[in-house]
Amino acid sequence: xxxxxxxxxxRSSGSESTRLADQIVARLAAGTEATVVRRDxxxxxxxxxxxxALQALFTPADQRTPQQAERVALDxxxxxxxxxxDVIVIGAPMYNFGITVQLKSWFDAIARAGVTFKYGxxxxxxxxxxxxxxxxxxxxGLHKGGPSDTQxxxxxxxxxxxxxxxxxxxxxxGHGMGxxxxxxxxxxxxEQIAALV
Length: 197
Fold this sequence. Notes:
Blueprint: E1 2-7, H1 16-29, E2 35-40, H2 51-58, H3 66-84, E3 87-93, H4 101-110, E4 117-120, E5 123-126, E6 132-138, H5 151-161, E7 166-172, H6 179-196
Parallel strand pairs: 1-2, 1-3, 3-6, 6-7
Antiparallel strand pairs: 4-5
Helix pairs in contact: 1-6, 2-3
């Protein structure tokens, strides 16, 4: 089993979403010969999708400058990791009601027409199929199931767009609401992981 772990917190240490992603991966890999690839998007940020990147992506491969080829290769490496994974585990904290810029950059990198999705007669078809996904969602407030949870629809929509439909979410909320709320959130998240994995 190949496991790809994506840590998308802006913090390389002390992140609750990373703690939960680590825990999920440890449970998945326990007693197996799993290969685990970890990508820490804070320690090694992926460049944002800007005009230069778009020009590189839309330039035919045999016509790219060395700089354009180098930029496209960065995205190619992330796509290859996602394609090779049997399981993808994502640590996804909520920042300002959405996903982090780090995770958005990863999403932008792996979404490529003709590679991870295509357009058919009825609309887009995801090509990253046959994979299990776990997403550890952490928030400072309480948003699950409410109108302020704009993060979850984004995650579901994007993952489905590239063919990742088998998704389980683990929630840990209330981290900005005091020590008791934090302890409760961690305990409940640990219980969710034990039940899912």
